[in-house]
Design goal:
Radius of gyration: 12 Å
CATH architecture: 3-Layer(aba) Sandwich
Number of domains: 1
Strand order of the largest sheet: 1-2-3-4-5
CATH superfamily: Gcn5-related N-acetyltransferase (GNAT)
CATH class: Alpha Beta
Length: about 90
């Protein structure tokens, strides 16, 4: 099972994914004012490629944005492509 934890401070943050206690992926973001954050990087450990780790981190980011009335600017190519493929996530753009 994929577990995703969020780390956040005033300027930056991340969503870290782990599977069975092993680091599986990392998605980083930077705050752009108080109401928006920029997803700038997504990486998935090679052994976990193709297991939905990146998408799970993005879904966690979308949930965080919805719960806190924030918007997301997806500069990371993975995040941008995933938003384009999933209309149900686009309300936070």
């Amino acid at each position: 099972m994929i577990e995703v934890k969020q780390n956040n401070d005033e300027k930056h943050g991340s969503f870290e994914a782990s599977i069975d206690g092993k680091k599986a992926g990392l998605m980083t973001y930077t705050w752009a004012g108080e109401d928006r954050f920029i997803i700038d990087h997504t990486e998935v450990e090679e052994e976990f490629n193709g297991q939905g780790v990146g998408k799970d981190m993005l879904i966690k980011a979308v949930a965080f944005a919805r719960e806190n009335s924030k918007k997301i600017i997806p500069l990371c190519p993975f995040a941008k492509a995933t938003f384009q493929k999933n209309e149900n996530l686009q309300d936070v753009l």
